[in-house]
Design goal:
By secondary structure, the protein is an alpha/beta fold. The chain folds into two domains: about 130 residues, Leucine Dehydrogenase, chain A, domain 1 (Rossmann fold), CATH 3.40.50.10860; about 140 residues, Rossmann fold (3-Layer(aba) Sandwich). Helices cover about 35% and strands about 20% of the residues. The chain is built from nine helices and twelve strands. It has a six-stranded mixed beta sheet with strand order 2-1-3-5-6-4, sandwiched between helices. Helix 1 crosses helix 9, helix 4 packs across helix 5 and helix 8 crosses helix 9.
Length: about 280
C-alpha cells in the first residue's frame, strides 16, 4: 500500500440556533469535494448559553474556524482572540479563522456583497442607497465605506436604527453618510448609482412581500442589488430587470461570503460556480 493513512479531516462548521435549515454546508462541502479538500463543514446547533463552551470545544478539537449565525454574531466576540478591521467596526462576526492558534473574528457578509458587486461595477466614488439597517445592512455599509464609496444614504423603517448606522459610517469611516425616513413608497432621488435592499422583505416564506418603493424611480443606469438569497428572484430583482437595470441577486452575496470563508480557512480559492450550483439545487428542492 502506498502513501500514509489519514482518517482525520480538517473541521469547520457553523454555530447557530436554530440552524437546521441553514444551507451553507451544501455549498461549502460541494467546494471541498470539487477541490479534493479532505475537510468537513458541520452544521451545529448551539444555544446562546452554550456558546462559550462551544468555542472552547472548537479550540480543544482543533477546528480550523467556524461561521456564526443568528444569534451568535455579536456574542461570539467575547470568546475570540482578535478581530479583523471591518468586524471590529461592525461589532459583528460571521466567520472565525484559526490564525497561528488564535481565533480571529472576521465578517465576510459585506465582503461577499462587495465581491458580487465588483462583478458589475466598482464601489469607488459611487453613491449608494441602502435599504435596511440590520446586520446585513451594517456589514454592507461598512465594507462600501472602506472600499471607497463616495456616499451611503440609509433608508430604514425604524428611524433609530437607521440613524445609528448612518452615524457609525460618518463617525468611523471617511464616507459621507445620511439617513432618510421611509414613508410610503420611497421615491429614489436622482444621482444614485447603486440601490441595495438589505432588509428581509421578500425572504421565504413571505415571497410576495414587496419593498415599499416607487419602481418608476428605478433608472436603467442603476445597479440594483438584493440580499435575499431565497428566493433569488425577488420582486425587486424582477422589477429592476424590467426597468433595464443591472441586477445582483442574494445568491451572489451568499456564495461570495462562502468563497471568502473557504479562502480564509484553507488558503484555496474555491470555484464560485460550483458553490452557486449547489445552492440553486438546495433552493429548487
Ligand atoms: P435584521 O433583523 O438584523 O434586520 C432586518 C432589516 O429589515 C431591518 O432594517 C428591518 O427594519 C428591516 N425590515 C424587516 N421587515 C421589514 C418591513 N416589513 N418593512 C420595512 N423594513 C423591514 O436582519 P439581517 O440584517 O441579519 O438580515 C436581513 C436580510 O439579509 C435577511 O433576509 C437575510 O436572509 C439576508 N442576508 C443575506 C445574506 C446573503 O449572503 N445573501 C447574508 C446576511 C443576511 P427595522 O430596523 O425597522 O426593523
Amino acid at each position: 500500500m502506498g502513501g500514509e493513512l489519514n482518517f482525520k479531516q480538517e473541521i469547520v462548521g457553523v454555530f447557530g440556533h436554530p440552524v437546521a435549515e441553514n444551507p451553507t454546508q451544501a455549498m461549502v462541502e460541494a467546494a471541498f469535494r470539487h477541490h479534493g479538500l479532505d475537510w468537513r463543514y458541520l452544521t451545529l446547533e448551539v444555544g446562546p448559553d452554550d456558546l462559550a463552551d462551544a468555542v472552547r470545544g472548537a479550540r480543544a478539537m482543533g477546528f480550523r474556524g467556524f461561521n456564526c449565525t443568528i444569534p451568535h454574531k455579536v456574542a461570539v466576540i467575547d470568546h475570540l482572540d482578535g478581530l479583523g478591521e471591518s468586524a471590529e467596526l461592525m461589532g459583528a462576526v460571521n466567520c472565525v479563522v484559526d490564525r497561528d492558534g488564535r481565533f480571529i473574528g472576521e465578517n465576510t457578509d459585506g465582503k461577499g456583497f462587495l465581491s458580487a458587486l465588483t462583478e458589475l461595477t466598482t464601489p469607488d466614488a459611487k453613491r449608494f442607497l441602502l435599504f435596511g439597517a440590520g446586520g446585513a445592512a451594517r456589514a454592507i455599509g461598512v465594507e462600501l465605506a472602506l472600499a471607497g464609496a463616495a456616499a451611503v444614504t440609509v433608508v430604514n423603517r425604524s428611524r433609530s436604527r437607521g440613524e445609528e448606522l448612518a452615524a457609525l459610517l460618518s463617525d468611523r469611516t471617511s464616507v459621507t453618510a445620511d439617513f432618510r425616513p421611509w414613508e410610503g413608497d420611497f421615491r429614489i432621488p436622482a444621482g444614485f448609482d447603486v440601490v441595495v435592499n438589505a432588509t428581509s422583505i421578500g425572504l421565504y416564506p413571505d415571497t410576495d412581500a414587496r419593498l415599499p418603493l416607487d419602481i418608476h424611480t428605478l433608472d436603467p443606469s442603476m445597479v440594483v442589488a438584493d440580499v435575499i438569497p431565497n428566493p433569488p428572484r425577488t420582486h425587486l430583482v424582477r422589477d429592476a430587470e424590467a426597468a433595464g437595470c443591472r441586477v445582483i441577486d442574494g445568491l451572489g452575496m451568499l456564495v461570495n461570503q462562502g468563497v471568502l470563508g473557504i479562502e480564509y480557512w484553507t488558503g484555496v480559492t474555491p470555484d464560485a460556480g460550483v458553490m452557486r450550483g449547489a445552492l440553486e439545487e438546495v433552493f429548487r428542492a
